[in-house]
Amino acid sequence: MPQRDFYLAAYDVSSPRRLAAALALVRGYTTGGQKSVHEVFLTRGERFELLHNMALLLNEDEDRFFLLRLDPSARTYALGVAAQPADPDYFYVG
């Protein structure tokens, strides 16, 4: 199984139509998160695919997309009702 890295994906999209499309695209990879910040585990190929598809979707003059790779050696903290992020044994993209 390919190695997946842990990322935070965030976006700010001005058009309601592009916003809905961005949400649908990112949710295809999401394992957690809320509103417009999502927790995603991605292989190198999935990362390329997500960035490519998001670039096709967004208007560079009006919209923003941010993908931050988190340090795999860092400890994560979940407060309140939040669950610790976990890379599932299998993953369906779509």
Automatic annotation (TrEMBL):
Q: Which GO terms describe its biological process?
A: defense response to virus; maintenance of CRISPR repeat elements
Q: Which GO terms describe its molecular function?
A: hydrolase activity; metal ion binding; RNA endonuclease activity
Q: Name one Pfam family in it.
A: CRISPR_Cas2
| CDD domains membership | Cas2_I_II_III
Q: Which UniProt keywords apply?
A: Antiviral defense, Endonuclease, Hydrolase, Magnesium, Metal-binding, Nuclease
Q: Which Gene3D superfamilies match?
A: 3.30.70.240
- Highest taxon, organism lineage: Bacteria
Cofactor names: Mg(2+)
Q: What is its EC number?
A: 3.1.-.-
**SUPFAM superfamilies annotated for this entry?**
TTP0101/SSO1404-like
| Residues annotated as binding Mg(2+) | 12
Parts forming coiled coils: none
By sequence similarity, the record places it as follows: Belongs to the CRISPR-associated endoribonuclease Cas2 protein family.
Assembly state and interactors?
A: Homodimer, forms a heterotetramer with a Cas1 homodimer.
Task of the protein:
CRISPR (clustered regularly interspaced short palindromic repeat), is an adaptive immune system that provides protection against mobile genetic elements (viruses, transposable elements and conjugative plasmids). CRISPR clusters contain sequences complementary to antecedent mobile elements and target invading nucleic acids. CRISPR clusters are transcribed and processed into CRISPR RNA (crRNA). Functions as a ssRNA-specific endoribonuclease. Involved in the integration of spacer DNA into the CRISPR cassette.
Query: This protein is called what?
Result: CRISPR-associated endoribonuclease Cas2
UniProt source species: Thauera phenylacetica B4P
